[in-house]
Amino acid sequence: MRVLDAFHLTRLGFAAVDEVRRRVQQHSTGHRGRRDDPLYRIRRVPRRRADHLTERAWTRLLAALDAADVDEQIALTWIAAQELCTLYQCRSPHATEQHLYRWLVHCAQADVPEPRRLARTLDSRREELLAYFDTDGVSNGPTEPMNAIVKQIKKVGHGYPNLANYRLCEHREQLIRDRLAGLASAASSRV
Description:
The protein is an all-alpha fold and 191 residues long. 71% of the residues lie in helices and 0% in strands. It folds into two domains: 6-134, no CATH class; 143-190. It is flat and about 85 Å long. The relative contact order is 0.12.
């Protein structure tokens, strides 16, 4: 059984917020974000949960949205992402289904393409999302760090497809080091 964990779900929600922010920025200014653009200055703030925002972050977020989010597309998407974060705080599968339904309605009523696309994705993965509650919160989350470690080890291997090739190259490097050490000692004994 596949389970959609909270980390990947919230990541999808905040990625949608970032996509909307970039699109609105491009449309309103005609260029990518620059240092003095209000939406560019807050580019990291909307990617945080509301309960993790400081007073200063709230002030910056609201000021930038007032200045540059004319159609309220970023605000609607940010609210959808925040609601998506609270989805895993529901206590029962039934409460989660109701919350998910309200979230899907919110995304459908918002005339913003990114939350609609995200809603279609999550609607198609509804069983995987609700399986989180059927399995008592078990997910593939704990295996993610192990996969990252395996990828890092493979990266350190510098692309050698198997251990035999890596050892062969390691053996060649050792031979070269030994040969250079021998040449250096021979040169020093001549002096």
